[in-house]
Design a protein that fits this description.
This protein has eleven helices and no strands. It is mainly α. The protein has two domains: 73 residues; 89 residues. It is elongated, with a radius of gyration of 21 Å. The protein starts with a helix and ends with a helix.
Length: 191
Amino acid sequence: MRLPESKIKSSIQHPEEEVRLTALRYFTDSPNDDDSVMPLVIQAVETYGVDRSFRILRDAEQLQQSKSTIDWLIGQLHRSDLDLASIDNDSAKTCLELLCDEQDGDVQLELGHALLAHFEFEGVELVQQLVEGNEENLHPDERGLRSQLVAAATIMGETFPEYEEWHDEAVRTNYGWFEYERKRIAENFGA
C-alpha cells in the first residue's frame, strides 16, 4: 500500500526544508503534469521565505506551470529585495572557509566541486592543490575534479602552472569520458 498523493502534496508545506524537498521530488522525479503542485511550492516559499526555500524552487522548474505560477515567478525575479547572487556568494564563501579547514579528502573534493560550480576565483588555486600530482596516481574522483577545474578555469580565463598540461590531457581524454560511446539503456543492462 502506498501513501496517497494528497498526503505527499501536503508535505510540501512541512516546516522542515528537507521534508518539503523530499515530497516535491516525488512529483519532479516522475512524469507528471499535475499543475496543482506548483501553487503548493509557491505557498511554501511565501510561508518560509526564499532563503529557506531556495532548493525547492530549483527543483520546481520541472513542474507543470500555469499562467498564474509563471506570473508569480516573473514577479519574484523583479523583486528588489531578492538578491540570489548574495545567496550564491554566501554559499561559495562558506565552501572556501570549510575547504581551508577540512581534513577529510572526500569532503574536500565535494567542496572543490561546489566552489568550481560557483566559478569562485579564490577556489581555483585551492582546487588545483587538491588535484596535483601524476595523472596515473590520481583517484578517479580526483581526475573528475581536475577535469571540472580545467573546464571552469577555461570559462573564467584563469590559468595556473599546470593549466596547459592539464587542459591538453582533458581534451585528449574527452574530459575523462575517453572514447565513451553512448549506448541504449537496454545494452547497459545486458539485454
